[in-house]
Every structure is written in structure tokens, then in C-alpha cells.
Amino acid sequence: MPSAIVTGATGILGREIVFELSKHAPQWPTIHALSRSKKEDYPSNVIHSHIDLTSSADGMAADLAKVRGEYVFFAAYLQKDSEQENWDVNGAMLSNFLEVLTKTGAIERVKRIILVTGAKQYGVHLGAPKNPMHEDAPWLTGSQWPPNFYYNQQNILHDFCSQHGKEWTVTYPNDVIGFARGNFMNLSTALALYALVEKEMGRGDELVFPGSPAFYTGFDSFTCSKLHARFCAWVALEPRAANEAFNVVNGDVNPEQFAPAEASVSDLAEKPPVEVQADELGLRGHEVTRQSKVEQQVDLVNWSQRDDVKAAWERLADREKLDKSAFEKATWGFLGFVLGRNFDLVISMSKARKYGWTGYQDTWDSFESVFEDLEASGVLPKKS
Ligand SMILES: NC(=O)c1ccc[n+]([C@@H]2O[C@H](COP(=O)([O-])OP(=O)(O)OC[C@H]3O[C@@H](n4cnc5c(N)ncnc54)[C@H](OP(=O)(O)O)[C@@H]3O)[C@@H](O)[C@H]2O)c1
User: Fold this and answer.
1) Which atom, in ligand 1's list, is nearest to the CA of 187?
2) Which residue owns the Cα nearest ligand 1 atom 21?
3) What is the CATH number of the domain that holds 55?
4) Which atom of ligand 1 sits closest to the CA of residue 173?
5) In the chain, which ranges are E strands?
6) If you measure from the C-alpha of residue 210 to the centroid of ligand 1, how many angstroms do you get, rounded to a whole number?
7) 268 lines ligand 1 (CB under 6 A)
8) Ligand 1 centroid vs 248 CA: distance in angstroms?
9) Are residues 122 and 204 in the same domain?
10) Cα separations in angstroms, 172 against 85, 120, 147
11) 319 CA distance to ligand 1 middle (Å)
12) Which terminus, N or C, of the chain has the lesser number of Cβ atoms within 10 Å?
């Protein structure tokens, strides 16, 4: 029976991979969970080890001396302030880790390495992509595009696997609905806290949609972190998925709601990713090829810093005995970006389905399940 090695084990995506594999002990008798911190207790088939992927290869090799496994899931991530730093740091974390696998001899047993990346693959952080997004879309390379650390990580992975005769698989989730403490991209916590604090301030019945009218009336494709974990467990063992990349979204597409008046507007990249294929798609000069924007009717970063908002949170947190740090740690900028985009994101699951994937997750159910996790961890009040 295979063993697994999971990096980023405390993160929003890695944590669920650890728990999903651990539920199937006969199939996965040993799961090595790796991260700098250990935030919770694990089932008996999970062994947590400390690793700092930015430390020296010798130090890491000592930490991982006894770690062996056939399937490696790389879900570690460190957010940096610039795309170049993301490229450098996240690329180095992956290549350091792969080097350590060779140093300790663990690489001998490895069959496949599964790398978790995301829909930034399609430049969704830069503007409108070509919809629906398919895995064979052209990579946005060249001087007109900022560095994309997913390309660096995938190139590192491809080269390493061809040198060592190993298989790889890459996943592209988007706008993840999941639970993890101190996560850099967690829209569910910020969304729930926004609604709660507005209610506390007496505006619960007239909750203003903080994002853009375009997002409200348009479409997004979310990924439930639990569904992504099930996908990873499936794809690791699917022979035909060797050396392939897959979109991983819930499988439904959600229209959102909206209210008037913008509080902030910011421009994304000068040209949106879809512009690259404008001629091929007959879209030259079309509205969607113009510069994309993030329009927030309520600028959530500014909102979260208002005195009345902070006072309402303090009141609510005291009354309900909540984890007070949750508000400050909530990713207001990320939620503002997600809800404020003025373009659609429709991500195709056709490729995975052709390979045999049948998973599906209702997005509203994903949110409910995460809100229950947040209740249980003292971030949200218990439902009365
Ligand atoms: N969250 C989203 O909405 C979303 C959407 C699409 C794609 N993605 C992509 O999914 C991937 C995983 O992101 P995530 O959101 O799951 O990240 P996350 O929740 O921020 O978790 C990051 C993980 O990496 C570990 N880590 C960070 N620095 C480390 C270091 N120096 N050494 C060892 N471990 C380290 C963290 O654990 P410790 O801090 O304990 O070390 C944590 O377990 C990234 O490529 C991200 O871009 C995320």
C-alpha cells in the first residue's frame, strides 16, 4: 500500500489532502504531513514532521531522514509582495524540497509528484481570460506579462521528473472555499465576518454586496478544498493522469448578487489574458479584450479598518467568545479582489471528466460546510 508525503499540511488545500488520505487507512497506511507549524492533532496514520522549505538542504534532510512515500503532494505556499518574489521564493521552496528527496534517498520510492497550483495559470489575477478555461491554453510568458510563479514551479517539476524518471500531475483550483488558520487566501472567513459585523452594526437586512456589479451578475468557478483533496487522492493513482495538468473546480457555476455605488476601482494588467487569443477567437476590439478592473462597492480593506467596524467586531467577539484575531487575519484584500473582478471565470472540467473523474460539489454546500468548521473553531458564533 502506498505512503504519501504532503507539504503545506496546515494550509487550506494541503490540510484537506492530509485528512482525505487519512480517512482511507487501508489504502494509505502512512501519510507524512510536513509544515513549519503543527496546528492540530492528526489521526494515527498521519506522522507530522517539521520542515522549513526556505532553510538549508542539509537541515531539511535531517528533518526528513525517515520520510518515505510513493506519492508526493506539494501544497506549500508562501505569499510574497511581488510576483518576482513569488517566483523566486515558491520556485526555490519546490526545488529545495526535490533536492532534499534526492539527498535523503526518498526519491527512490517516489512514483508521482502532484503539484498544487491554481487558476492564476490562466492569468485570472491580470484580467479577463478566454472562457471557458482549458488546460491547453497558452502560457502568458514574455515581457508584457509579470512573472507567474506557477510556470516556474511547473518547469522545475517537469525537468526534475524527466531527469529522475518520475511522473508528475498538476492541479489548477480556483477561489478556494476551505478552512485553515492564518491562510493568505481565504475568502470564506472574510466573507462570513463581513456579513456578521454588518449585522452587528444593524445592517443585516440590507447587506450590501461589496464587489462589482459585473461579478454579481456574472459567473465564477469555485473549488471546495475537500473536493480538491478527493481529486488529488484520485488523480495520484490514475495511470492516465501521468504528466498531465487538470482544472479542479466544483463543477457548477454561480451567479452572484449586487447593489449600486462603487467605493473603489483599480486597474488590472494593461491587456487581459484573453487579448492573446483575440484574433484566433474573432474578439479583436471586443469589450472583453479591454483592460479589466476590480470594482468594489465596499472597499473591504478600508471597511475592515473603520473604527465603527472594529468596535462592532470587538462587541460581537466578546459577547460570543470568538477568536478575536480572526478579524485582523481575515484576507480582506483577497476577498475584495475576488468579488470585485469585472469579468467571468468559467473553468472547464471536461478534461478531468474524460479521464474518469466524476466528483462534483455544490458551491453553496461548500460554503455551509466551511462555516460549520469556522463555528467549531470559534471564528464564527454558534448558530442558535
Ligand atoms: N487559497 C486559495 O484560494 C487558492 C486558490 C487557488 C490556488 N491556490 C494555490 O494553492 C497553493 C497552496 O495554497 P494555499 O492557499 O493552500 O496556501 P496556505 O493555506 O497559505 O498554506 C500554505 C502552506 O504552506 C506551508 N508553508 C509556508 N511556508 C513554508 C515553509 N517555509 N516551509 C514549509 N512549509 C511552508 C504553510 O505551513 P506553515 O506556515 O505551518 O509552515 C501551509 O501549510 C498555492 O500555490 C496557491 O497559490 C490557492
Assistant:
1) 3
2) 11
3) 3.40.50.720
4) 6
5) 3-7, 30-35, 46-50, 71-74, 112-116, 167-173, 176-177, 223-224, 244-248, 264-267, 293-296
6) 26
7) no
8) 17
9) no
10) 21, 8, 17
11) 32
12) C
345 in ligand 1 pocket by Cβ < 6 Å?
no
| pLDDT tens-place values along the chain, 384 residues long | 889 999 999 999 999 999 999 999 999 999 999 999 998 899 999 999 999 999 998 999 999 999 999 999 999 999 999 999 999 999 999 999 999 999 999 999 999 999 999 999 999 999 999 999 999 999 999 999 999 999 999 999 999 999 999 999 999 999 999 998 767 678 999 999 999 999 999 987 888 889 988 888 889 999 999 999 999 999 999 999 999 999 999 987 755 445 444 478 999 999 999 999 999 888 888 889 999 999 998 999 999 999 999 999 999 999 999 999 999 999 999 999 999 999 999 999 999 999 999 999 999 999 999 999 999 999 999 987
Q: Determine if ligand 1 sits within 6 Å of the CB of residue 6.
A: no
Measure the CA–CA gap between 274 and 270, rounded to whole angstroms. 12
Asked whether residue 60 falls in the same domain as residue 194, the answer is no
Number of structural domains in the chain: 2
Cα–Cα dist 112/82, whole Å? 31
Please tell me whether residues 209 and 259 are part of one structural domain.
Answer: yes
**Could you tell me the residue range of the domain that residue 325 belongs to?**
179-221+251-346+358-376
Closest ligand 1 atom to residue 7 Cα is: 34
Is 9 close to ligand 1, i.e. is its CB under 6 Å away?
yes
Tell the residue nearest (CA) to atom 1 of ligand 1: 185
187 and 55 share one domain:
no
176 in contact with ligand 1, CB cutoff 6 A: yes
Give the burial class of 284: count Cβ atoms within 10 A of its Cβ; 0-12 exposed, 13-18 middle, 19 or more buried.
exposed
Q: How is residue 375 written as a grid cell?
A: 463555528
